[in-house]
User: Fold this.
Amino acid sequence: MELCDLPAYELMRLLRQRKISATEILASCLARIETIDGRPGSLEPGEINEEDQQTVHAFITLTDDRARAQAMAVDKKLAAGEDPGRLAGVPFTVKDIFCVQGTRTTAASRILANFVAPYTATPVARMEAEGALMVGKVNLDEFTYGSSNESSAFQPCPRNPWNPQRVPGGSSGGSVASVAAGEAVLSLGTDTAGSIRQPAAFCGVVGLKPTYGRVSRYGLIAFGSSLDCPGPIARNVTDAAMMLQVIAGPDAHDSTAANVPVEDYLAQLEAGVKGLRIGLSPDYFKITYPDERGEYVQQAVPQEFEAAVRHAADLLAKMGAEIIEDVPMPNTRYGIPAYFVISRVEAASNLHRYDGVKYGYRTMEPVRDLNEMYRKTRAEGFGPQPKLRILMGMYVSAAQYSEQYYQRALRVRTLIRRDFDQAFDPNGKYRLHALLTPTTPTTAFPLGAVYGDSVLMQYADQLTVPANHAGVPGISVPGGIATDGLPIGIQFLAADYQEALLLRIARAYEQATEAESWRQLKPMVLQR
Amino acid sequence: MSEFIDRSTFDHLVHLAALELSPEQAEYLLRELNNQLKAIRELEAIPLDADLPVTLHGVPYTSSISPTLRSDDWQPFDRPQDILAQAPQAEDGYLIVPDIPHTTLE
Amino acid sequence: MTEYEAVIGLETHIQLNTTTKIFCSCKADSWFDPPNSNICPVCSGLPGVLPVLNRAVVEKAVLLAAAMHAEIQTESCFDRKNYFYPDLPKGYQISQYDKPLARGGYLDLPLSDGSCRRVRIHKLHVEEDAGKTKNERGRRLIDFNRCGVPLVEMVTAPDLRSADEAAQYLIRLRQLLRWLGVSEADMEKAHLRCDANVSIRPKGADYLNPKTEIKNVNSIDAVRDAIAKEIERQIREVEAGRRIEAWTLEWDEDSGKLRKMRSKETEADYRYFREPDLLTLHIDDAWKNGILKNLPELPLERRQRFMEQYGLPEYDADLLTGERSLSEYFESAVKAYGGDPKRVSNWMMNDVMRMLNESSRTAAQLQLTPEHLAEILKLLDSGTINTSTAKGLLEKVDASGKAPATIVAEEGLAKVSDDSAIRRVCEEVLTENPKEVQSYKGGKVTLIGWFVGQVMRKMGGKADPSLARQILEELLR
Ligand SMILES: [Zn+2]
Assistant:
């Protein structure tokens, strides 16, 4: 096993014992990137060749010089006997939707391809301040708009390390791929409808969407501002807890970062699940979606997904948890339609600022006047997914449709929230500490299978998006390997600011499955 | 399906969004918009109580957890030139854009 | 022939005089700064930034709302107003739409005929300012320094009936803003901006006709002129049988002409929605009461009280309450003086206000304190100094900051009331002017004034003139 495959907590232990140096850890990650990442995404990729189809392509921008300087600073501090920080020497990647001063910050879009951020996002700044090493900016769906990473303007887009013919999921696809493949130990992702949890499930890693407002959004290029959550991606629960510990908490730059004290996520991590009430809901074992004729079809999630969840429930029950069956979450199915409205209204407005005036791309075509400059810049700079979101946002927020769509969607959001309130109410009928569900209705799909069908793509988030509407935290952890050889993710959801509890339950499950055979399987790209 | 986005509504949206589209792109986007609209229309069938409030953020912000407002203290950003350096066109400290279209005044 | 009346509503934008901008920590005022030097990631709309509301903006807006008799809302919200313009870096303005900070309210305008016009306020909300653009050789130059400057937007009902009343409204509003200390209210520096909605109707009618909107008027005179011109134009149009169309007009100050602007987007196109980056603003009673502790007596209330309490004529009361520190100066002086308030008022209107005007200072900036003024008046009343000495003392005290009595002592300015000293000079004057003495004795008694003048001149103005006259009359008897 190489250093880059070790958990962060193990690396930090070895580092503090001075058995290894931060520079060595970094070298191991850089070597792994060199071996398996292939060429980074670019705006002019040319043809996607045979080799491209076997490599990960997690990165847009490698920041190895920055990471080297950070590693040297950590080693120097260690040599001087100083505290190198709570994430010292741990290499991490940053979804290229976060501004980092002095680095290109592209949002995987042509319109920001040359944008060098003059400031650093709060969660990145906090990680760097604790000695973490920023290895690079990783690929995503353009402006995070997708669940597969195929919409990135920077191609080749990331591929699933478990099978490079499959998508890594999205939108934090580069993040999960880089962590799953050992190119980094941690990654900072974002989750608006499932963009951390869904790709984490697809790539067999741990992904945590914190409570809305638990981690500052300052420096995160906005998609759905009332839904966006930065969060950790790691290969194990403990590492995710360590990372959340550093990035969580109020921020003077974010008015929605709640003034709630940050718990010690590690203190209770090994406390087990004895006495905890964990719920299962029939509404999370099926998905509902419109077919070509607009008729709603209900379909059960694949049997092996339900089996993985029930297996987890059994293990937790054995450890002393109480499993509560048949918890009704009846508004789960409205998560996607409501999301179609709310996220589009917010996205369209958030994309207004890309106009060729202040930063990023401006058309090279000759223009007669300002309006033509706007039109050509935005037409050339945005790919189809941002355009689709802009147009839908414009449509549903127009005054005459606002009541019918936007206001209605916000009220449906209240219903979704109430499902969670009732499930977690400590004086209610269910009194759950957590809800246990599958993370996704499928394993990672083949490249090209869904891309282009914006509706079907969105329904990949059906089991993750309710938590975004409700603001509650959720974590996806690896829950087995399906018969197609791809990871299955299971999800725990909890009440507001109950990240410590979530991590503790996830850790108990992780421990209980440590000896299971699927845990020994490795992603395909690491088997070559 | 009583309501779809027709071509003229679509063109108006494109104009408002400060976009221009190739015919192929317009066709794709219009089709996808209408498909999404089908999904969105599921919302219309949901019975909602008249007094059901809207939710803007899922998490309720009580006064005890809402961040305090900013105090009125000046903290200058020390690198305004880094911001200006990102502009596609700038001169003498100004950002430059093509002129705004105007109709001749009487 | 039909007689018309104008129906005018004003939409004002008031720049609050906070230290920093509304949503970031850049300073609010960059009047003297080079372009794009007072900016940060937040106010220049970089990707990923978030607004954080300035507490002082809320406090100043609440103070203004209370002074406008508006109802301060315990809950208000911020919304995004979406549109493309190069001076708007985010592509939306953060404003307040359906849940503004305050509702209702009014401002009373005392009119010249002694009546009072109550101008109702529709809506009062806070929002951020946009940047500035200017045209240069077919290009637009953009400066973001002003982006994020805090504004209060206040819209009146169509309650004003003439160009003069509109100007009066702005004068009274400016007075109030400075009185409260919430804005410098300098129209030349765009601290106070105004758009006017103007229509006409037959006098006495109760319906509203289509209105035009006049933009870009940045002085009170310009508001008066532009509205007057537009009323004339509308009357001409209607008399000629043409309809008034809902145009947007621009006032060209240099040529004194109105020009038609291109039609702007309709409101539906702004697609307002709640700003998800900001929370609902809660102004609870404790906070509100804390802010309103600082709400002073308002100008019109004080004006009324000055008339009632001090027996001042309306003219005096109006002048003395034109500016808050002046009115406070007056009251302090009256208190220190203890005598007739009208006497204090006369001295302030004739002398103190002249000193203020000549040096462009406010009463609070004078070195001549109200107590000094009172002391000078007392010296005058007691006969220690004469009027011309008193007037000179005002300047001397203001220049030096020394107490009047000290200056009188140091410079020997006290009236000479020593009988023998004056008698000596009187004798001199009479000896030196035998011809005039002859005339006087011949019956031309009016010459007594001339003799007094000669004595005063010889004594450098310090003699007590009544004493001098008494001695001269005695010597000439
Ligand atoms: Zn700023």
